[in-house]
Amino acid sequence: MAMTQQLTVAGPDLERPAEGVAAANVLTMRGIIKRFGTTLANAGIDLEVRAGSVVGLVGGNGAGKSTLMRVLCGGTTPDSGQIVVGGADIDNGHYGPSEAQRHGIRMVHQELSLCGNLSVAENFYLEAPDGTGLAPNWREAHRRRARAALDAVFPASGIDIDAKVGHLTIGERQMVEIARAAANADLRIIVLDEPTSSLDQERSHQLREFIRAKSAGGTAFIFISHKLQEVIDIATDIVVMRNGGVVWHGEACNASIARLVQLMGGSVDALKAHGKQSSAGQRQVVARISGPFTARLGHDIEIGKGEIVGLAGLEGSGQKELLHALFDPKRAGGGIDRQGTAAFIAGDRAKEGVFSLWSVLDTMSIGRIARRAPLAFVSDRVEQAAARQPAAQLRLDEGRFQSSILELSGGNQQKALVARALLADSPILLLDDPTRGVDIATKQDFYRLCDDIAGAGKALVWLSTEDAELLTADRVLVFSGGRIVEELRGKEITEEAIVAASFSETAQAAAREAGDGVSGSSRLARLAMTSAPFVGLALVLGIMMGVNPKVASVFGLDLLLMPALSLVLVAMAQMFVIGGSEIDLGAGAFAGLVSVLSATLLYDNPPVGLAAILAAVIVYALLGALIQARRIPAIVVTLGASFIWIGIGYSLQPTPGGTSPEWLSALVGWSIEGLPTSVILIGLVGAAAALIDWMPLGVVLRGFGNNPAAMARSGWGTVRHAFIRYGLAALFAAAAGLSLTAINTASDINSGNSYTMLSVAAVVMGGSSLIGGYISPAGVVAGAVTLSLIGALLGVLGVSSDFNAATQGLVLIALLTMRSLMADRRDAQ
Amino acid sequence: MNRRFDFAVWAQKNPWSWSAIAVLLVWLILSVVTSRFSIASLSGIVLSASFLTVIGIGQMLVVATGRGNIDLSIPSVLTLNAYLALIVIHGDDGNLALGLGLALVLALAIGAVNAALVVLLRIPAIIATLATGYVLATATLMANRAIPGFMVSPTLKYVASSRLGGLPVMTIVALVVVAIAAYVLRYTAYGRKLSAVGQSRDAARLTGIHCGRIVTSAFLISSVLAACTGLLLGAYINGAFLEMGQAYLLQSIAAVVLGGTPIFGGAATALGTFFASILLILIVSTMQVMGLPPGTQDMVQGVVVILVLALAGRKAGLVRLPKVRRAKAETG
């Protein structure tokens, strides 16, 4: 492949004379060709962008716009073609996202690339980190930058730059994303992909004002949108794409919506040529759609045997929801009445279709097996015989049955999935964009097959993102804003009609905005969750003080809380690991080991002891790097590591003993008049963890916990940060070990064991999310202290200490249940 | 060359072969190096490994359901049932049916709670089973106070420690469990569905599989097997003690992983779990025979698990991306 590039890019010499002209252009793309399989996504595209111009890029689904933009931004390497940015020729072979950024090209993607768990200002930091890391007011600079950037694009947006991005509405997130990209210095080109899809009229207007002002300063924009009125309004030039090529390029003043729609549509004679045999005769209804889906249509829709029903519309307009509702009417909760079973054929084969460990035969035969009784016998020979007929019908070579499904091309994988659906023998086949990533010849083959299948009496419901392929359907249901807005039949089915119906945009924007609002009650629920650990701690302490007033004294508190210090430290270690959505089952054992090291080696020979503890910390951090580098489960590695820690500790000190170094004991032995020492120490630990979390490092670690892909894209090292994360955890766990020695004045390798599980519980109680990225040091401190007080509380209440573990377990289950139920409610909104 | 390649293909389809080979190698080396190893000593090891095997099969099914599912409540279920046997059966086979019935009900209840937390409330399995383990720990403490004495059922004792024609009865039990598991995984619809769910929950759901039911069944089976092992292990050691399940936490997971079941789910090999159990016990008893201190024994176990995982991680990567072969297959 590299060879072909070399050969085809050899052309630039011919283009040299044109350089004088090209200088006026901030970007010139020539002859861009990109093939996926045998599909020509970009068929030799030329694109010129002048400095300060706004190019509106329009085209139907699958026209090749996104491929072209990915090529421009370094996300996709073209098969051939030339890119010149600001007069500099770009070497296709060494062009990636970071090179594109260096050339001043930024893109705002449709699927947002923000870390939802971080604040708006922190997301600005991740995009453009600088050396202000250790300054006490490092956040101020980024807050100011965020504020200024937002105000520049969206004056009076009302977005709180300290709010978590995940708590913003989709529209607000889109505003942040746009402002973040536009805030960079030295920008040549900003690509906006559907920037206004979630913005209301006013914000969209503001964005256009900003584009006008900024482009006047020389920055060029490429504006991709389905909202044609906006494109005509803002663009200076318009480029219309269809079938991988540019079909029109002209000034915006010469364009009209009607003209553009006509240009985007267009004939697909090739597809229509094979025609279709409409199934005449008696109609037998297999499914009926009513309820919210047909609310705007005004009548129910029936799907009959032998019919092909297409689902069209802009992506995310409700087509997928209908398809899934047809598959599982019960889950959809009404509106769908289906006869018999339904088989699903997914276009996103990797995620929803194939089983990566299986052979082609296994992948097909699960269609027959899925609905059988659990202990029904399965024989490969019988399955192979059954699969032979549909495979032959689909022209899928039987010799490939035993190959891994992943060894097949996309088209053949798709055939295997269709064969699976046929084997399931369902009257309805649901196709979710089945020809995605399949070459054109296979597609033709596929359309013919579908006609055959429909001819044999099956009903096909076909969701497509390529409007052209629905021209062969009997009927097309066009979606907009989550509803069916148009039912096209027979000759009414044209690309123009589909496009026109898809663009009932006002309802769509309104529906999205309404669906995403944060209600007051969920805000209250969130408040309840964050305050739960503190309320719990206060409750426990309150009860204990009520029963035994001596608890409230300085001495009483000190005595009660000193044992909690070690758990608080282990919990902090666990918190950083869980922040990366992993769980550490060796933290407690590691604390035990450090305790043994400190009471033996460190006491006998301080330099050796110190070196040993440091070495242990480094090994621990390296395990973290290993987990990341090899992508192996942290749970098992850390559980294995716990055996190593205990083994070493046990070898050093078979029976409890040793002596705490004097200075170490002194660390917990001091006191300030009127203040319980343990409370101060616990507070210091919490403050230290909070400080790390507050620092740039903490922000980066949380970013990794939430959206590692986006972090890697922004250039943050994954393995390095795994090392740092586990290193931090090791330091806290080591401190826990030292505290064990200091408090007990001796060491026991088993003293830390119970802390591992308790620390997980404390972190979860403290309000940190197990999904990663959300940690709350104060909450975890409260959770850890509460958990360690449960034993004492039970004692005060006269309950046997046997119930200690059960109480801890039940509290944990109760909290997780509460949180899970609330998360469900948020999903349902 | 050609034969070696054939073996590689065969071994890839039969992941248990690696642990079987490892068992054979370790045993051969030990037989040569120390004269103390013999068929008889291996038989003792196989007996110990039989208990681990039964537990490991349950853990394997849970792991096979994917999404990092794991059952951490196994040690508590095992211990609690050993106590239950002491209290209910009380050394009298007349109470055996009652004891078995209660153990079954208890195990199913625990499995159901685990499954409900994981499937319905979508709590990660590691936390859910950790929490139920806590609750069970309290139950065990209370049971510990309630035991009337260390009298074990003669029938259970027979199954746990007798021999039938030289082969420990317990090993026969373990082999039956392995055979059933292997058959179910390979030749029934359930086995296919379990594998599908473990590989991709979305894809499995879209073929019409009830994923929740499959995951639930795995937790139920895991609990029941742990409970049975608890009854038998109690009979074997003539009683019960609070820590008796502890060692099985890492060992059950290690047996699954070493056996060749991918830790991310989607596939399972019962035979592999069996051989890996023998391998683990073989390693442990070798260290005991060699007189290694207990600390070193722990360390070796930990190192073995981490090393195998780190290497298996790369192996999985190679298997997943057979680039050369794929290119050949497509052009050919």
Give an overview of the whole structure.
- Chain A has about 850 residues and is an alpha/beta fold.
- In chain A, strand 7 (about 190-195), helix 9 (about 200-215) and strand 8 (about 220-225) form a beta-alpha-beta unit.
- In chain A, helix 24 (about 565-580) packs parallel to helix 30, helix 24 packs antiparallel against helix 33 and helix 25 crosses helix 33.
- The radius of gyration of chain A is 32 Å and the shape is globular.
- Chain B contains 15 helices and two strands.
- Chain B has helices at about 1-15, 15-35, 40-65, 75-90, 95-120, 125-145, 155-160, 170-185, 190-200, 200-205, 210-235, 245-260, 270-290, 295-320, 325-330, and strands spanning about 165, 165-170.
- Chain B starts with a helix and ends with a helix.
Report the β-strand fraction of chain B as a percent range. Answer: under 5%
What is the percent of helical residues of chain B? over 70%
Q: Supply Rg of chain B.
A: 21 Å
* Spatial strand order of the main sheet of chain B: 1-2
Shape of chain B: globular
Query: Shape of chain A, please?
Result: globular
Total helical elements of chain A: 36
> How big a fraction of the residues of chain A is strand?
5-15%
Structural class per helix/strand content of chain A? alpha/beta
Distance between the termini of chain A: 48 Å
Low-confidence stretches of chain A: 1-23, 266-280, 506-518
Count every beta strand of chain A, where a strand is a DSSP E run of 2 or more residues. Answer: 19
Profile the largest sheet of chain B. 2 strands, antiparallel
Distance between the termini of chain B: 23 Å
